[in-house]
Design brief:
By secondary structure, the chain is an all-beta fold. It has no helices and 32 strands. The protein binds calcium ion.
């Protein structure tokens, strides 16, 4: 999911009245109290699909002067929305929307509303997928089903509505919370919210009902027929939450677990030059990485074999010319002896070592000069 942060400011001259709203995908996510001047930061996490954001200003009285809203900052992931300019916004209603200096200004006159509507683009998915089915049956616009991740609102719905939410999060610890919350009066419809099929990182979080969940609010939710049922009275809430803890990852090694080292005359070599490609030898040792000591140590492989190859620049393919003779030396190294006839050029000694389940293949470059 992607963070959407909005710094907003509602200015209401004394004697005037107005309120400010934020709608996302046509649903109300935030609303100020009518006539109260305030400023704050609105934060929500939105799923990877496209979203419609709608900032609205509603003016009742303007006896003291015209109220207006300043969107001082709006950031969606890495995207600075205010910096996109006025073209980002579509105007709806009566009044004006304009970019002044570094903010978006919404202004309208009495008994009117002005909206600035923009489209938040599709965002990149993260590693951990979460999904759930939800339904709400409540007083529209007053009693809400809300979903939070790490305390940030990700979904808010009311009335009679249902759907499947799909989003992704970083593979880190996250807390998912479902809430049913009611205002101070009036109940409509079934007056509850239900959640089922909660899948987090491929795991079904409702297999054992609410056993692994924390529940709370004024009324604890219940678990019925595979669903979390959230319900409560006026001015109350009911919630259930669960925390995802990532499985510790094996430390990633940027080195192979087995390696082959080459020697000539007791010195380690990374390539070999020879006068002629009829007979020569290279010694090799095989080592294994021990993650505990974080060091390499010699190992006796179950199998070692070598072959001389020619590399074809055009096809990008190694062609085998001849096998090596492998002699196991009592001092723990393997002598790879080559006998073959080929013209001067660049060749490779392909060495294969098997250690347990690991088959390690390495190639030593051989430069064969003119055979005198
Ligand atoms: Ca209500």
């Amino acid at each position: 999911m992607t963070l959407f942060e909005v710094d907003w400011e509602l200015i209401i001259p004394s004697g005037s009245e107005a309120y400010f709203t934020i709608f996302i995908d046509g649903e109300i996510y935030f609303q100020t109290q009518n006539g109260v001047e305030e400023s704050s930061t609105f934060i929500t996490l939105l799923s990877e699909e496209e979203h419609i954001v709608d900032f609205g200003l509603y003016t009742d009285r303007e006896d003291g002067g015209t109220p207006y809203v300043k969107i001082n900052r709006a950031i969606y992931g890495d995207l600075d929305i205010v910096a996109q300019g006025i073209e980002f916004w579509e105007k709806s209603g009566t009044g004006s929307i304009e970019i002044i200096e570094n903010y978006l200004k919404l202004l309208t006159t009495r008994f009117n509303k002005i909206e600035a509507i923009g489209t938040l683009p599709v965002s990149e998915p993260k590693e951990l997928q979460i999904s759930f089915d939800w339904e709400v049956s409540s007083e529209f616009d007053y009693d809400f089903f809300e979903v939070y991740v790490d305390g940030m609102l990700i979904l808010r719905r009311s009335g009679i509505d249902y759907g499947t939410f799909v989003g992704t999060l970083t593979n880190e610890q996250h807390t998912l919370r479902f809430v049913y919350v009611k205002d101070s009066s009036v109940s409509e419809n079934n007056d509850l919210a239900k959640v089922s099929n909660v899948l987090v990182g491929g795991e079904n979080w409702l297999l054992d009902g609410l056993t692994s969940w924390t529940t709370g609010g004024d009324v604890n939710p219940t678990f019925e027929e595979g669903q979390i049922v959230l319900a409560c009275d006026d001015d109350q809430s009911s919630w259930a939450e669960r925390t995802y803890v990532p499985v510790p990852q094996e430390p990633e090694l940027d080195i192979a677990n087995v390696r082959i080292k080459y020697f000539q005359d007791g010195r380690q070599v990374s390539q070999v030059s020879i006068e002629a490609l009829d007979t020569f030898f290279v010694d090799s040792t095989v080592e294994v990485f021990d993650p505990d000591s974080e060091g390499w140590s010699s190992v006796v492989p179950s199998q070692v074999f070598g072959e001389i190859e020619r590399y074809d620049d055009e096809s990008g393919v190694f062609d085998k010319i001849a096998n090596s003779f492998v002699f196991e030396h009592p001092d723990g190294y393997y002598r790879l002896l080559q006998k073959c006839n080929a013209p001067p050029g660049t060749y490779y000694l392909k060495t294969t070592a098997r250690v347990g389940d690991i088959t390690q293949i390495e190639r030593l470059k051989i430069k064969a000069k003119v055979n005198i």
